[in-house]
Write a structure and sequence with these properties.
The protein is mainly beta. It has no helices and 27 strands. The strands form seven sheets. The protein has a five-stranded antiparallel beta sheet with strand order 1-2-27-26-25, with no helix packed on it. Strands 3-4-5-6 form a four-stranded antiparallel beta sheet, with no helix packed on it. The protein has a four-stranded antiparallel beta sheet with strand order 7-8-9-10, with no helix packed on it.
């Protein structure tokens, strides 16, 4: 197993970590529409790994060694399903850009709640929820934030019971404006990080939509994950690791010898801060910290 990185951030690199049943895949080619591939993942409290993909079996569950456990969601989602998050209660939230919905599920896939109207896109750019939502995040009080997304240029805030409390954003490149709201995350202090991908930046906000600043120096940032001492950012320039003060600690980019692993759509961590990458070339890799 090759080793990449240096210093404190050295990893054993495991390509194609996810071991699928025979005949299954993480995406399909040769069809019309958006690429069907692995898009994002999340780690459950017990250490099991959820992988969301645009394939016949959209939600896949693995153990930490990549051994397949089960799947669910067959026939429930579109070919452009986009984001998966696990909340503090262990419930699984999925943003489906193709269906214009955000759904909440029990860990076994049982549907608990649907936000938005299935196949009912809201007005483009300035509309109500949703028009091609992309991801979800939670603050400590249980409020839900949705990045919305490809058809809108908005962030929506919901109460824990699903009531819309606030929306903000519009097309543009100024503070609080977005070119594409690709994913959203919340750190331990409830600061919101919004991947404004086509503006090549991450915007920071309070939960009440106050703009705290822009984090630049990226190429098409797609997703991010929060560790105990670092922030992990995935995008068109690969995977980068930063301090909370935005000092770069490591970079694995397109020129890396394993560059196929760093055309990255999604990034997430486990409890040991091993890194999982959802890649555009229909694979999930694991970087195990040495």
């Amino acid at each position: 197993m090759p080793t990449i990185g240096s210093g404190k951030y050295r990893y054993d690199f495991q390509r194609d970590w996810a071991k699928l049943p025979r005949g299954w895949n993480l995406g399909e080619t040769g069809h019309p529409g958006p690429p069907r591939t692995s898009v994002q993942g999340a780690t459950a409290a017990n250490g099991d790994i959820y992988v969301l993909c645009r394939a016949a079996h959209p939600v896949l569950l693995f153990d930490p060694e990549g051994r397949f456990i089960t799947s669910w969601g067959e026939g429930q989602f579109s070919a452009f399903v986009h984001g998966i998050t696990i909340d503090r209660a262990g419930q699984v939230w999925i943003a489906d850009s193709g269906l214009h919905t955000v759904t909440c599920h029990q860990p076994d896939g049982t549907l608990l709640q649907t936000l938005g109207t299935r196949n009912g896109a809201a007005p483009t750019f300035y509309g109500r929820p949703f028009n091609m939502p992309t991801g979800t995040a939670f603050t400590a009080d249980g409020d839900l934030f949705v990045s919305d997304g490809y058809g809108n240029r908005r962030v929506h805030r919901f109460s824990p019971t699903g009531e819309l409390k606030q929306s903000w954003g519009e097309p543009g490149s100024g503070p609080g404006q977005f070119a594409l709201v690709h994913f959203i995350g919340a750190d331990a202090e409830d600061t919101l990080y919004v991947c404004d991908r086509e503006n090549h930046r991450i915007q920071l906000f309070t939960p009440t939509a106050d703009h705290l600043g822009d984090w630049t120096g990226f190429y098409m940032p797609s997703d991010l994950a929060f560790g105990r001492e670092a922030i992990y950012v995935a995008g068109g320039d690969g995977l980068s690791i930063w301090t909370p003060e935005r000092e770069k600690l490591a970079q694995f980019g397109p020129d890396d010898p394993h560059k196929g692993a760093f055309n990255v759509h999604g990034v997430w961590l486990d409890a040991e801060e091993n890194i999982y990458l959802a890649q555009f070339d229909r694979a999930v890799s694991k970087l195990t910290r040495r």
